[in-house]
Amino acid sequence: MTGGVLIDGLQYANWSEKIFRQLREGGVDAIHVTIAYHENFRETVLNFERWNRWFEEYPDLIMKGLWASDIDAARASGRTAVFFGFQNPSPIEDDIGLVEILHTLGARFMQLTYNNQSLLATGCYEQEDTGLTRMGKQVVREMNRVGLVVDMSHSGDRSTIDAAEYSERPIAITHANPYEWSPALRNKKEDVIRAVTSNGGMLGFSVYPHHLKGKSDCTLQSFCEMVARTADQFGVEHLGIGTDLCQDQPDSVVEWMRVGRWSKEIDYGEGSKSDPGFPPMPTWFQDNRDFGNIREGLRSVGMAEHEVAGVMGENWYRFFADNFGPQG
Is 2 inside any structural domain? Predict the structure, then answer.
């Protein structure tokens, strides 16, 4: 693959040697990997431990990422740097002191909610969004202090705007698309994107079909035209890719993602009751070898080469460099 640094802002694949090799074939220099959905602190530590074994087992393919400089090391050695994040604040339980501990272990992103109300903020599936809670404000400040990025991908509108304005450091929506392009509960309205980007934050575009116009039938041209329009509206420097690729995951994992421990019933989330599992990916993005399609698609809709390079990874690289370390 030709071009500059390539970074994916969010994946939750069923990891294997096959996928690690596809990352290399696709020239992916760094990925943000979800290692907790509803896990508590102890269970999350076990997930870190499992990844340590993979780093030992496949040292020629992947390496642990802690800082942006690790992406340089990965590129120089032909590997993919893996950065960790949580899609729910459950790993900190109700203990603000665990924010620093988890950052020390290697966490670099944490969503304040996953669809539901949490101790910190309101999820996008709740009817009433009351914004950041008292604890949420304290946790955001602590995340700012240590260098754990606030991620609002599954949060409600008011909570996301609150977080963008309250946080002393830029925040991220690692995987979502504009609501006006594809009206899904998880996609973000203009005022939400503006609040995040105007405060220096990042939006990562998702290729998860429930977030796409036309779902699995979404065309590459439609997706890339949407990226270009968003760049015109909010500034290309605030945009990246966050595919939300869930490759090789069984449908039971979708149920775990949506249901967790909070319900005894199947929560269909963004799927339909006739198809609660993973939807088919669009033909132009099946796995990590297909990032070149997005790169070429962005070029074909008229984006300049430096804009394409920014969206494909340079913007995330800069964001990582500025926000993973302790507050200056």
Answer: no
